[in-house]
Amino acid sequence: MEPDKSIALRPRFYKELVQPIEEILSRCEKLKKEVQPNYSIKTSGNHIWLYIGEQNKKFYSPHLHLELEHRENNHTHVRGLFGPNQTLWTLFMFLHFIIAGIFLIFSMIAYSNWSLKLPYKNDLLIMSLMVVVWGLLYLIGRSNRHHSVPQMKELEELMNKILT
């Protein structure tokens, strides 16, 4: 998987395994103790979360969420999702909603001023600024993902130890 080449900020992948879910979860429990200081592994039901350990964690450090689905003949379908730190992701989403809200408010004000034949250039300027800020947020997200690619590959290796 090449996460740096996709446009999505949260890369996804899918795998089919010829193993039952119970076997994968038991391997996960064994590995949990072996990788303790460098990685953190959490499980809940058929979900596994892989995190970078506290000593190597950066603000852009990713986590990997694996969802295990039972298929017939003891096969397992694995859905994987790389994501940024949850706090950082929440901040980015909050900023996106604020920017979208400001854009919508000033678009309504600009329309009202245009229909009333009042000046509306400042409103259009603020709307343009919000588009630029949104683009900057996207570029910052891409930059954070680019910086986290080596850690994503580490988590992918850890995942392969669990799944194989």
- Secondary structure class reads alpha+beta
Give me the CATH architecture of the largest domain, please: 2-Layer Sandwich
Report on the biggest sheet: 5 strands, antiparallel
Instruction: Specify the overall morphology.
Output: elongated
Order of helices and strands: EHEEEEHH
C-alpha-based Rg, rounded: 22 Å
**Which homologous superfamily in CATH is the superfamily of the largest domain?**
Kinase associated domain 1, KA1
- Helix count equals 3
List the domain count as a whole number.
2
Task: Provide a compact summary of the structure.
53% of the residues lie in helices and 21% in strands. With 164 residues, it is an alpha+beta fold.
Question: How would you characterize the overall build of this protein?
Answer:
With 164 residues, this protein is an alpha+beta fold. The chain folds into 2 domains: 3-84 and 151-163, 2-Layer Sandwich (TATA-Binding Protein); 88-139. 53% of the residues lie in helices and 21% in strands. The chain is built from 3 helices and 5 strands, in the order βαββββαα. The protein has helices at residues 21-34, 86-115, 121-163, and strands spanning 12-17, 39-44, 47-52, 63-70, 76-83. The protein has a 5-stranded antiparallel β-sheet, covered by helices on one side. The radius of gyration is 22 Å and the shape is elongated.
